[in-house]
Automatic annotation (TrEMBL):
Signal peptide: none annotated. Residues 658-799 form the Methionyl/Valyl/Leucyl/Isoleucyl-tRNA synthetase anticodon-binding domain. It catalyses: tRNA(Ile) + L-isoleucine + ATP = L-isoleucyl-tRNA(Ile) + AMP + diphosphate. GO terms for molecular function: aminoacyl-tRNA deacylase activity; ATP binding; isoleucine-tRNA ligase activity. Belongs to the class-I aminoacyl-tRNA synthetase family. It comes from the Archaea. Its EC number is 6.1.1.5. This is Isoleucine--tRNA ligase. The lineage of its organism: Archaea, Candidatus Nanohalarchaeota, Candidatus Nanohalobia, Candidatus Nanohalobiales, Candidatus Nanohalobiaceae. Keywords: Aminoacyl-tRNA synthetase, ATP-binding, Ligase, Nucleotide-binding, Protein biosynthesis. Residues 14-619 form the Aminoacyl-tRNA synthetase class Ia domain. GO terms for biological process: isoleucyl-tRNA aminoacylation. InterPro entries: aa-tRNA-synth_I_CS, aa-tRNA-synth_Ia, Ile-tRNA-ligase, Ile-tRNA-ligase_type2, M/V/L/I-tRNA-synth_anticd-bd, Rossmann-like_a/b/a_fold, tRNAsynth_Ia_anticodon-bd, Val/Leu/Ile-tRNA-synth_edit. Pfam families: Anticodon_1, DUF5915, tRNA-synt_1. The gene is ileS.
Length: 1006
């Protein structure tokens, strides 16, 4: 068996899977068993997969594979989000479109076909990309949100919402993208930093020479001003400056005057009153002669404790109920008229008079100019501003008729549902709880084309409304339920007999994915319905779905079924590259394809699976290399097993190390099964557990212990059977993590992925033995560190190793004495308490201030005390009296010294000591070890295989070698050994501690 070669292995296995139709066989093998309903959060079918989608699907694939191996009938249907602006924008880019008018000119039907062709092509490509990195899902039957069966699933929920009174039409401010010309929901809003004008505007008080001072960063909303909000409990000042009398918050007065460049002696405070006294005072709008919409508005002061603060501005808040949610709320409470003279393109309508046809942001300078002397100050401010999640266009709040789901009606129920969900990690559930608590109503209508049509028909004569829930309610069913075909379907009005036409809007794309738990199952190829499973067993998505997919599912599930949609959720973070967030535009990116090309699929998988998904995953090539090293160890372990073991029956008697590794594996198996299932779902812990077991317990532990036994040693059959048993079961356990390598190493006709996980064998579990071997490993590691510090190689025997520690350590040393002697390469291993010499000194920095001039006296007293007793008190945090002062334990420095000729190294429960005396006998054995090592190195350089036998001859100081002839024969694999100094094909020499030999060996003997 050659070295681990991911490219070769994965190509071989992929071909094997393809020829044997393995994926489909695995997907089908548990039919009829208990169902595990996993729901795939649908990515947009709009581009190649990236490392983020790769991480997401690899995590999902792991849990699907794991649950299949537990015997579940796992629902493995992938999904694709195919509607909405994410797709429309891509098609617009391809066509060079920049507005809805260009789409209309191109033709809605043509545009819809282009969108469909776009997603179909990307679904095929993404299916191939996902399958190429080993994701086993039902790629032939994904749920696709543009398919008619799915649209009907969405209509079902829409009608339920209507019938339960959750659907309503209203006109109040919502965020609008003027480039996309449609509403944007609260969960789709992103923020950016923008430079905007800031203006201070004086609003003349009606029938008075006084004025109200307002501040805004959106001058374009001033034509829609209808009120001024003040806080009833704040103090307001009437300030005279520049022959004007201006009302402003007293607390902000000095700040405003400084901004206006008014010195302290240049203004006068005429009056100070509470805000409540200003309520109801009317003012004249400075643009009332320019803006027709202002003709029927009488501006007045209204009160608000919620939305007026003194963090900035003037304390008098400009209120335009048509352009702000808060303004709208307070306006409704105070019967303030709502004005919104702006259309979906962001252009002023005729209600705005001279500004008609101008984009609102372009109108800012003209409005500021038209304010004339009422504009007291203008500047620029950099602040956070909402933008479109798809095209980055700054959003406007406009009051345009929309359809809403009244989520606030059942917000409390959603919060309660969340308490029933198992979130991994649990703090993600708390984040979702906080999101739900501030949930608002959902504007669900969109003024676009490629989406699920709103199933609402309105009578053209009597305004009667009808909502349908499936195609059976239509008098005629078009071949495609999308626009423009569905727009041609007319209904007869049940109220007046008139004609009913469908409203032109489509649904928010988040509604599409929100109904996936049941709509996806309407695929004709799926043999069960949502009613059969009640809830989704598991979902796994990224951090952004808190306000996205999980939010929309909660709302739609309540409206449809009055219940939570899912039981378990795994939350994962972003993918970083060397600590920076991946960004294609900034060139900070690594694709799955690039990672696979360099290291292979299994290494990418194990890298992802061994990291805590709740944290952002920091991709580094160094970490990929570490995983390569692990899989190399795994490969070499199985190579060793194949070389040195054969099929054998289970022996009656197992050695202690055999019983230990069998128990240890079953403990790991039990742990991994728990870590990867409900409620834990922590694959990363399982991956780390398996890596640690493979490296430390199996490869560096057990195999090292049985190496001599496997070479015709004592109870060879037990070692052979045990190693094969553990490695075979380990391979089944590793297969969901590294499916390609596991398949390649698997011995058997059927795929390893057709096999269940091994069951935990309680009869093989021995916790006491595991604890003892844990101590054994700690002792071994401490001894290795000590040897390294003292320059004593492990292959050189030592006279004696002494271990001290707890009673548990003593028991382990007694039980495992022979194993310890062999692995520590020591002639003797004993447990005993080593008498240490203690040296206690004063810590002058701590004790000096307490002792003052009595330091010398204290030192003399300390010198006469038993330092072991003082050290015991110090370690117990007890005080010690010296020179008449009580000195705390922190005032002493305690040092220990081991007996001469010994060195010590601590471990968690004790200390290991090595006797450093080197007798001639020990030096002879060390010399033999050096000779064997050099011969083995020469064999490797000569490219000999382990099984190749050679002739070997020595000359020089051969007496130590002759005494250890049998050891040399077994370790070097010889056909003949001589001490006459024959000149053979390969030669070398060894010098060690005054001993010198030359050796020569032949080519392999036939």
């Amino acid at each position: 068996m050659t070295g681990y070669d991911p490219d070769k292995i994965e190509a071989t296995v992929s071909k094997q899977w393809q020829e044997n139709n393995t994926r489909q066989k695995v997907l089908d093998r548990n039919e009829g068993n208990e169902r595990f309903y996993f729901l795939d959060g649908p990515p947009y079918a709009s581009g190649n997969i990236h490392m983020g989608t790769g991480l997401n699907k690899i995590l999902k694939d792991f849990y699907l594979r794991f649950h299949r191996k537990l015997g579940f009938n796992v629902h493995s249907q992938p999904g694709y989000d195919t509607h909405g602006l994410p797709i429309e924008n891509k098609v617009e880019e391809e066509k060079g479109f920049n507005s809805k008018k260009e789409i209309e000119d191109f033709g809605v039907e043509n545009f819809i076909k282009e969108c469909q062709n776009f997603v179909d092509g990307h679904i095929d490509q993404m299916n191939d990309d996902f399958e190429d990195i080993g994701i086993w899902m039902d790629w032939e039957n994904p749920y696709v949100t543009y398919h008619d069966y799915y649209i009907e699933g969405a209509w079902q929920t829409f009608k339920e919402a209507y019938q339960k009174g959750y659907l309503y039409e209203d006109q109040y401010p919502v965020h609008i993208c003027t480039r996309c010309e449609t509403a944007v929901a609260y969960n789709e809003i992103e923020y950016t930093k923008l430079d905007d004008p800031e203006v201070y505007v004086a609003m003349p008080v009606k029938d008075s020479d006084e004025e109200f001072l307002i501040w805004t960063t959106t001058p374009w909303t001033l034509p829609a001003n209808a009120a001024i909000m003040v806080h009833p409990g704040h103090e307001y000042s009437l300030v005279k400056f520049n022959d004007r009398k201006i009302w402003m918050a007293s607390e902000l007065r000095d700040q405003i005057m400084e901004k206006f460049g008014i010195e302290e002696d240049e203004f006068e405070v005429l009056k100070e009153i509470e805000g409540s006294e200003l309520e109801g005072r009317e003012y004249n709008h400075p643009l009332e002669d320019i803006v027709p919409a202002q003709e029927d508005v009488q501006g007045r002061v209204i009160l608000s404790e919620r939305y007026v603060d003194l963090e900035g501005g003037t304390g008098l808040v400009h209120s335009a109920p048509g352009h702000g949610k808060e303004d709208y709320e307070v306006g409704q409470e105070n019967d303030v008229k709502q004005i919104s003279p702006v259309d979906l393109k962001g252009e002023f309508t005729e209600e705005a008079g001279k500004y008609e046809g101008t984009h609102v942001k372009d109108a800012d300078p003209q409005i500021m100019e038209d304010l004339g002397e009422n504009l007291l100050y203008s500047g620029e401010i950099n602040h956070e501003y909402p933008k479109c999640w798809r095209c980055d266009t700054p959003l406007l709040q406009l009051s345009i008729p929309q359809w809403f789901f009244g989520a606030t009606q059942f917000r409390d129920e959603l919060v309660d549902y969340n308490e029933e969900v198992n979130w991994v990690p649990d703090w993600a559930g708390q984040k979702f709880h906080e999101w739900l608590e501030q949930l608002g109503d959902w504007p669900v209508s969109r003024q676009r084309y490629w989406g699920i049509p709103l199933p609402i028909w309105e009578c053209q004569d009597c305004d009667h409304t009808k909502v349908i829930g499936d195609r059976d309610e239509l008098p005629e069913v078009p071949d495609d339920l999308h626009r423009p075909y569905i727009d041609d379907v007319e209904l007869d009005c049940e109220e007046c007999g008139g004609t009913m036409e469908r409203i032109p809007d489509v649904l928010d794309v988040w509604f599409d994915s929100g109904v996936a738990p049941w709509a996806s199952l309407k695929n004709p190829e799926i043999d069960f319905s949502f009613e059969d499973v009640d809830t989704v067993d598991l979902e796994l998505e990224g951090f952004d779905q808190i306000r996205g997919w999980w939010n929309s599912q909660f709302i739609t599930s309540h409206m449809t079924y009055d219940q939570k949609p899912f039981d378990n959720v795994i939350y994962h973070g972003k993918v970083m590259l060397d600590g920076k967030e991946m960004s294609k535009s900034k060139g900070i990116v690594v694709s799955p394809e690039e990672a696979v090309e360099k290291y292979g699929r299994d290494i990418l998988r194990f890298f992802i699976l061994s990291g805590n998904p709740a944290d952002d995953l920091n991709f580094t090539w160094d970490k990929m290399e570490e995983n390569m090293e692990f899989l190399n160890i795994l490969w070499n372990t199985y190579n060793y097993k194949d070389t040195y073991t054969g099929e054998t029956e289970r022996p009656e008697n197992l050695e202690i190390e055999d019983r230990w590794i069998l128990s240890r594996f079953n403990s790991v198996l039990e742990e991994v099964r728990e870590q990867c299932t409900e409620p834990n779902y922590q694959a990363y812990k399982a991956a780390q557990t398996l890596e640690d077991f493979t490296k430390n317990d199996l490869s560096r532990g057990y195999i090292k212990m049985i190496r001599d036994r496997l070479k015709d040693g004592e109870n060879q059959e037990a070692a052979s059977w045990t190693l094969r048993k553990v490695t075979d079961d380990l391979l089944r356990l590793l297969s969901p993590f590294t499916p390609y390598l596991a398949e390649y190493l698997h011995e058997g006709e059927d795929s390893i992925h057709m096999q269940d996980l091994p069951e935990v064998n309680d009869e093989l579990l021995d916790r006491d033995l595991e604890r003892g071997m844990g101590i054994f490993q700690d002792v071994e590691e401490a001894a290795a560190r000590l040897r390294q510090d003292q320059g004593i190689k492990l292959r050189h025997p030592v006279k004696r190793v002494t271990v001290s520690g707890s009673e548990e350590v003593e028991q382990a040393v007694q039980d495992l004495e022979e194993l310890l002697k062999e692995n520590l390469n020591a002639k003797e291993v004993v447990f005993e308490k080593v008498e240490l010499d203690y040296e206690v000194k004063l810590d002058y920095a701590e004790a000096g201030p307490v002792l003052g001039g009595k330091v010398s006296d204290a030192e003399e007293e300390l010198a006469d005390l038993d330092h072991a007793e003082v050290a015991e008190k110090v370690e117990a945090s007890e005080s010690v009296e010296l020179a008449g002062e009580e000195l705390g334990s922190e005032m002493f420095d305690v040092r220990t010294h081991v007996p001469e000729g010994m060195e010590g190294e601590e471990f968690s429960d004790g200390t290991v000591y090595i006797d450093q005396e080197r007798t001639e006998e020990l030096l002879d054995e060390a010399f033999v070890a050096e000779v064997i090592r050099d011969i083995q190195q020469k064999r490797k350089e000569a490219e000999l295989e382990v099984e190749d036998q050679v002739e070997l001859s020595f000359s020089g100081d051969t007496e130590p070698l002759e005494q250890h002839e049998e050891e040399i024969r077994s370790r070097v694999n010889l056909s003949e050994l001589g001490f006459g100094g024959e000149d053979l094909d390969y030669s070398g020499s060894v010098e060690f501690e005054g001993r010198k030999i030359e050796f020569s060996f032949s080519d392999p003997v036939e």
